[in-house]
Amino acid sequence: HQSQSIPFSEWLSLLTLCFAPLVAHVLVGVPEPTVCGKLPLPWHERICHFNPTSIFWRYFAIVDRRAHARKWDRPDDLGAVNATFWDGNRWDGSVEKMVRMRGKATKEPSYHHIYVFSASAVGTLIITLQGIQAIYELIANATGSVYASGHPISKVFFPLAILGLARLPAAPWLTAEYRYRQHKESEPLGEGYSEPLLPLTPHIDTNPIAAGSNVPSNQYYPQNSWRVLALCFFALDFKSDTRISLTSFVSLLFHLFFLLCTLAIVAPFTWRKEREEGNTATIPCISSAWYQVYTYMLFSPALVFILISALETRRTKCGLYTT
Q1: Domain span at residue 97?
Q2: Among the four residues 75, 121, 192, 294, which has the most C-beta atoms within 10 Å?
Q3: Can you tell me the distance from the alpha carbon of 184 to that of 219, in angstroms, rounded to the nearest whole number?
């Protein structure tokens, strides 16, 4: 294989460059779960939050929630919209849950948006710089202004770095400065919410916004998610190689598979946000068996992609790495 002449010390540098976008993407994009029920959180329910599609949806949903809010001045709402709540049976990121959690935080943000000098802002800056670097190299390679270096292992996650730019529209409202105490669902509801006086029947809409409860129904504009649907196109890989290696071919298939699956999963829910099914900060299908299978199908080819790229990576006479 072509990589056998690369010394171990340089392999460490290449692997560091390889996994840097992935590590940054996970650290700043995956929220810490909040367990609200008696049952513990299964590991297989947690793993789907590391799926880039789940992270992409979270960014999209937070921007959408903020774009349709008539009033956004509660720090506890900022914490609740960023949190992921596990009630023992499913994930709940609805507006109802956000209102229920008012007054239940042991730690909440200081303001209704983040500060410039905060951990979240630093994470956004790192993600942005990685995305700009990836775009610059793709454009430079496509225009021929620099040597087209193919897909060495150091650039395996460059498309993921570009996807990280989808964080920018949501950046002012992305925070990890929140904590919630463990509680049972039978506890009193949060401020601004009251249960209906009559028992609910299956024929009555249980959505608190639609049912006329004390959740402020005029707090949000009608959902119209096309305003932020353009975020889906940040994941595009516009690179065109003059020499197609096996690594380049696998990269094309892998990222095309991810892009098409993400669009196919996200698009239907964006038009259902008038209903409870799509109006959630956690991707609605995250607990579905097919979505878990898709997550594993995404992770497994990624390992194969890294292996192929490692075998084909070589150093040229000028010192650059290519495939």
Answers
A1: 2-188+223-322
A2: 294
A3: 27
